[in-house]
Amino acid sequence: MLDRLSHVSIVVPDLEAAAERLAHAYGMVAGEILVNHEQGVRITYVTLANAKIELMQPLAMETPLGRFLQRNPGGGLHHISFAVDSVAEVSATLENSGVKTIGSATAKNVHGEPITFIHPKEFLGVLVELEEKPSDLPHDPN
Ligand code: CO
């Protein structure tokens, strides 16, 4: 069910500096910077052969991501994300096995795809995002 890793997400204090660091030290080139006002975040992605690295910079400190940055001023690993065919179906299946997903039923990522989250205490201490990316559609690298 959760067999497609979409991305690993890192919160950073300075998106441009983070992208520059990855490019300079590792030759990892980030794409354009996207803004998700609903989630209060600027985002860019490094596309790898089998998954992506998501870099996120909160737009304000009084948001969940801003509070994460207050606790981790240098940034850090925030969540891992799996691609699923249907967020609603996977959420229902998980709920049947006692795992509640968290977040609004209408939440969408910066690409307009439905998303939900699994609380870290339900996944070995790591926040997990589920992103709706049907596997039978042509793969969108973002
Ligand atoms: Co994500």
Task: Please write the string of helix (H) and strand (E) elements.
Answer: EHEEEHEHEEE
The chain-level structural class is alpha+beta
Note poorly predicted spans: none
The strands making up the biggest β-sheet line up spatially as 2-3-4-1-5-8-7-6
The level-1 CATH class: Alpha Beta
What labels describe this entry?
single chain, alpha+beta, 2,3-Dihydroxybiphenyl 1,2-Dioxygenase, domain 1
Outline:
With 142 residues, the protein is of the alpha+beta class. Helices cover 21% and strands 31% of the residues.
Could you describe the 3D structure shown?
With 142 residues, this protein is of the alpha+beta class. It has a single domain (5-132), classed as Roll (2,3-Dihydroxybiphenyl 1,2-Dioxygenase, domain 1), CATH 3.10.180. 21% of the residues lie in helices and 31% in strands. It contains 3 helices and 8 strands; from the N terminus they run E-H-E-E-E-H-E-H-E-E-E. The protein has helices at 15-26, 64-71, 87-96, and strands at 5-11, 34-36, 41-47, 52-58, 76-84, 101-102, 115-118, 128-132. It has an 8-stranded mixed β-sheet. A hairpin with a 4-residue loop joins strand 3 (41-47) and strand 4. The longest helix has 12 residues, at 15-26. It starts with a strand and ends in a 10-residue tail after the last strand. The model has no long low-confidence stretch (mean pLDDT 93).
Write the layout of secondary structure elements.
Layout: E1 5-11, H1 15-26, E2 34-36, E3 41-47, E4 52-58, H2 64-71, E5 76-84, H3 87-96, E6 101-102, E7 115-118, E8 128-132
Parallel strand pairs: 1-4, 5-8
Antiparallel strand pairs: 1-5, 2-3, 3-4, 6-7, 7-8
The structure holds cobalt (II) ion (CO).
Residues 7, 9, 54, 79, 81, 129 line the site of cobalt (II) ion.
